[in-house]
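[job 4471] stage=fold_predict status=RUNNING
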Amino acid sequence: MSNSSHEWSKDALFKKAQLYAETMIEHEDNAWQFGLWSAFTLEFLIRAAVSAVSPVLLADAKDWNNILYGLEIATNKPKFIPKSAATSELILRLEDIVPSFTREHANFCIAHLAKRNSEMHGGNLEFELYPSSAWAPMFYSVCKILSTAAGESLENLLGPASAKRANEDIAALKDVNAKSVRGAIEAHKTVWNEKSATEKSTAQKQAQTAALRHYGHRINCPACQSVALIQGKAAGEAKKSVSDDGVIEKQIMKPEAMHCIACGLKIAGYSKLLAAGLGSTYISTSQYDAMEYFSIDLDEHVRSMMEDDNNE
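[job 4471] inference complete, writing structure tokens
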């Protein structure tokens, strides 16, 4: 949008995030005000990142006039008051439009803003009991991703001094994740090695049976080397091709979680998967009946899908 003064413009929203961040930084890290203002900062940073793609994406789609407002087109609706989408909905939209914004980041945002809501609308002292050491590293990591998505930087949001400290926290978070996941792998490896050959064989057969290709991407477990599954989310636009057998759709997937039935190892979150060497993308292939895919099923208008293949 060319009009940076529009209330849904990226510039207006990022400036508000800067203002709230400035107020946040005025307080000590262990003060409840620091946590509360961090949540205000986060909300407007989320909105700025969405608006950077298009302010229209901020509109509450339940009313067509909100979309017109995002496009700066006058509406004829009397007493119209523009309404943007709920922040939780915008977080879901960010997952689709910002590749580096993962489900792990989305979950943090939802949880952090839920604490803000509890603080604001009830008698709970959420941020008094929620030490910044428990959330600040992930908060700064999300801020960096969203600032970049908005065409800005962490330095622009926080100022040089605070941004330097934030980057140190981000680096520490990566190190903690790496140590955590390495510890989990070694612990499961130790327990696995203590099992008898019969127990291992039985567990591996169970894992092989459970590791169906349409449930996830098959890998070798880093702890016990049995067949394990990785689940992921779509990254980018799916590529389609038409063959004699129907429509083939290939989608690049970004890993989000790993589970091994044999030894019980579970790794949740892209950052931890990355630290475990399991962060590579994979391709999920789906095959559809051509008539149903192109919505020309003359009988029941039901789209049928064959099994996904997540192992290309």
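[job 4471] summary: The chain is about 50% helix and 15% strand.
[job 4471] exit 0
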